[in-house]
Design brief:
Layout: E1 2-6, E2 15-28, E3 31-42, E4 45-60, E5 64-73, E6 80-88, E7 96-109, E8 114-128, E9 131-142, E10 147-158
Antiparallel strand pairs: 1-2, 2-3, 3-4, 4-5, 5-6, 6-7, 7-8, 8-9, 9-10
């Protein structure tokens, strides 16, 4: 999963980048152990790439996808993070459907003992074959004081695999 967001109306735009890549091995119906890399950065911080490990819960059917991944960074801050995502995508015809998504991320820095980021992503749109597009919002809360930054706009999404 990779997300990039930016505010293109500003001269000195705020950008955020998050990418998580895991190899998983199912240990019991829908539950897997996961290991991989987590990369995070923004226009105000440098890119950090860390090895990570955790669990993954996955439930999929034609209309619904649910993913929950609690994990720990294995180096540097030893962050604890939980990612959760729910997609609801009912079919309208052979090629068209509705696309909705709620995505939540909570990250806690265990080394320094405080909340680093909470992110809530919302998407509402249409699906055409393997592409999804529509309107969305990202609501970020940074640091122990939960400083809030909101981003509203359009999205385009495709599944690579």
């Amino acid at each position: 999963m990779t997300n990039f967001s930016g505010d293109y109306k500003q001269t000195n735009q705020t950008t955020n980048f998050l990418s998580q890549s895991f190899l998983t091995a199912e240990v019991w119906k829908g539950i897997s152990v996961a290991a991989g890399l987590s990369a995070i950065g923004s226009s105000t911080t440098h890119l950090e790439v860390r090895p990570t490990a955790g669990l993954q819960y996955l439930l999929t059917n034609r209309d619904i996808v649910v993913v929950v991944i609690p994990r720990f960074d294995l180096t540097q801050t030893y962050n604890f993070e939980t990612f959760a995502m729910l997609e609801y995508k009912p079919i309208l015809s052979n090629n068209w459907g509705i696309y909705t998504r709620v995505q939540w991320l909570y990250n806690y820095n265990t080394k320094l003992g405080y909340h680093e980021i909470t992110e809530i992503n919302l998407r509402l749109g249409l699906a055409y074959k393997n592409f999804q597009f529509g309107v969305g919002s990202i609501h970020d809360f940074y640091g122990p004081d939960a400083y809030n930054v909101n981003n509203f706009g359009i999205f385009i999404k495709t599944d690579l695999f």
